[in-house]
Sequence to fold (517 residues):
Amino acid sequence: MIRSLLIVFILSLFFATSCEKEDNVRPNILFIMSDDHAYQAISAYDERLIQTPNIDRIADEGMLFTNASVTNSICAPSRAVILTGKHSHINGKIDNIAKFDDSQMTFPQLFKEAGYQTAMFGKLHFGNNPKGIDDFQILPGQGDYINPRFLGKDKDTIITGYVTDIITDLTLNWFKNKRDKDKPFLTFYLHKAPHRAWWPSPEKFAEFYNKEFPEPENLYDDYSGRGTAAKTAEMNLLTHMQYMQDSKVRPSVFENMENVEPKIVYARGDGTFFEPSSNSFNNRYGRANEEQKKKYDITLDKISKDFEANWPNMNDKEKMQWKFQRYMQDYLATISSVDDNVGRVLDYLDESGLDENTIVIYTSDQGFYLGEHGWFDKRFIYDESFKTPLMIKWPNQIKPGTTNEEMVQNLDFAQTFLEAAMIEAPEDMQGESLVPLLKGNHNQWDREAVYYHYYEYPSVHMAKRHYGIVNKEYKLTHFYYDVDEWELYDRVNDPSEMNNVYNDPNYKDIVVKLTMN
Fold:
């Protein structure tokens, strides 16, 4: 009897020790982020536009967030928020023009100090030497889709091929040939796609040109239910999307045509102005070598012939429809390549066994308009750009196939990763760790609303400066600088945000409550 009890005690001690060791094993982290990837263009959220089976795998094996958002819907500021865990007005990167203060602590530095091996491949958007990163090859600024140049730790290089494939090749090469197997890793896998001007690979270009996509219900929005900001923004498909830069009509088509391309003068944040030109097309197409051009020419010729044959007889509604289809064809084609390549990386993690202790995150630096309200681009607090896709898988910690509706933000990423890796977060970070939500401990989460602030005006697309507070039911926004207008949206009864109810007496108490917050 005593011997049996002793055996049971020893086994219990062994299993307890094993579990404790397992709990203390620091996870690897793979952070996957695309640029301007609308949640509507991921089939885990919405199947009407595209199937993304590989990105969906992350949601199927982990948690899908339906109320994830950004603090400032524009590329570089969003990335600064992610790296620092601080709002734009604290980290200083309020727009794409303001210089990022690289003396600030970023979470990759803390990972490196804690013994993690760190690497970054793809689009960072600002800075040529990311701090806390052991190995990197990043695109300068926006980077190019075709034969892109990369800034490396040792040297810069131009790599022949399509950018989404190349970023994946660099990431997989690091995993296979450069990773220190004795260290946990923090790896940034950052796609340029689907950023404007949406150049697909030649194969996807041809495939998606033959597809037709459903229009959003408010494609022809007249903004009657909104204020000045919506009415004056320069992101309407009909009046602001460019036939050459965006729809890929060859510049030569316009030599004998008048009054075709909309007359647009964009404002820069530094007070200067510029007009889009045929150089936008030529600079991108011109990067292709002769072999690549032959492949692109097949579809480019079809587009130009289609345009020449139909444009003279099209009314404004038909022009809007034509631009919408061209937009969706190219935008979704670039996403299809992202999905294929995410699959390559996930397959490698599975085959190598790394998936068992690797947290995988998929997100975007913000959302994007896919014709909703007649728009393309981002910037506004309205849902299509305010909300961002977010899915996380963490084997043995997150229950597969779960959905979360809490108000979470990109502000929370740094503290989430630090807690998961058992690294202490600096006190000046402003987010909240998502780890309790990931592990199903919802009683440890008490956030009711999030804060948003957009600063880049006057500038490209002329979305006015505004800030707001958003909870699950309502969204209160103040547009300022050259106007003084408030908007309130009932997110439950008006999910498309068509009607501003700020002055509706039925919502007076809601306005007071949100203003006091």
In short: The first helix runs from residue 2 to 23. The domain at 26-197+333-452 is CATH 3.40.720.10 (Alkaline Phosphatase, subunit A). The first strand starts at residue 28 and ends at 34.
